[in-house]
Amino acid sequence: MAPGRLDSPTDHRLFAETEKPTVYLLDTLHPTAVAHAQSIFNAIVPGDKRHAQWRESAEYLVIRGSYLTADDIESCPTLKAIGKQGVGIDKIDAAACKKRGIVIKNTPGVNAQSVAETVLTLTMSTARQVGRIVSLQSSGQAVPKETCSGLIISNKTIGIVGMGNIGKKVARMFQAGLGTSIIAYDPLLPQDAWADIPHTRAATLEQLLESSDVVTLHIPLLPQTRGLISYPEFQLMKRNAIIINTARGGIINEEDLVKALNEGLIWGAGLDCHEQEPPTKERYGPLWDTGKVVSTPHIGAATSQTQMETAIAAIDGLAEHIKASQTKDS
């Protein structure tokens, strides 16, 4: 399955009717994906009276947003594999799964187009102060156009932190649509990565921050990436720079972001990810009150098409793993 496009889902005849594996769908999935799961598996969905037995009975799970803690994993004595809709597995205790030999099949790349379009949306909205303008108008205040002054993104430099599937989509989109230059940083990929995309490979994060008009984050939240963008990093950035986060809350130090915006260290921020989700006025009032932030509640993959595609990809990945395991054991 190519990123962002549904090609041919796994054949429903992969398993004989009498040999269909039982799979528990812990979350409500797209209806088309549920039908697909039911064509391949003995799929037990939310609302089925058997669903409550997943801890003691499940060999296979498919999840979208549910948390699976170490205690959850421990309470599943027969669990063998998990299909995870989406690329992030931070809601699953991966260490507990590894200890038990439980396989996690996520769906990297399938939501790349949707998230890349969200990056573009947040970038343009932040550049033109759309959030502030809409907020003022919604409160009843007239906003004369003479009081508005935004930024042009065309032909600027886009800094991409993380050169995976989403980062690559972002690079192509901004280059093709806006004629931007690309500088990218990823210490884990070989130097010949993105050979088909004109770009500068930054040797350090600092080099990227100093050079970019827009910095967009596409990395997982790990101990070494928590607070990766903090006050010292904001000090390195251009005064008209924009920071975009569609990856995970916690990569940006949110208190330092408020300080940086209030001090005018950067132009603004577009955030689809926050440490608290969904974000609330109580927690994020000081950030939103700067008038320089566009916040959305982690909607990067929240399109019907993407939800269908990522759910089907998780189901297919799990089905292929089960079939391969059965073939190996036979």
Task: Write a structural description.
With 330 residues, the protein is an alpha/beta fold. The chain folds into 2 domains: 12-110 and 303-329, NAD(P)-binding Rossmann-like Domain (Rossmann fold, 3-Layer(aba) Sandwich); 112-295, Rossmann fold (3-Layer(aba) Sandwich), CATH 3.40.50.720. Helices cover 37% and strands 14% of the residues. It has 12 helices and 12 strands. It has a 7-stranded parallel β-sheet, sandwiched between helices. A 5-stranded parallel β-sheet has the order 2-1-3-4-5, sandwiched between helices. Strand 1, helix 1 and strand 2 (42-44) form a beta-alpha-beta unit. Helix 1 (31-40) packs parallel to helix 12 and helix 5 (112-127) packs across helix 7. The protein is elongated and about 70 Å long.
Per-chain topology:
Layout: E1 22-25, H1 31-40, E2 42-44, H2 54-57, E3 60-63, H3 70-74, E4 81-84, H4 94-100, E5 103-105, H5 112-127, H6 130-138, E6 157-161, H7 165-178, E7 181-185, E8 200-201, H8 205-211, E9 214-217, H9 231-236, E10 242-245, H10 254-262, E11 268-271, H11 281-288, E12 293-295, H12 304-329
Parallel strand pairs: 1-2, 1-3, 3-4, 4-5, 6-7, 6-9, 7-8, 9-10, 10-11, 11-12
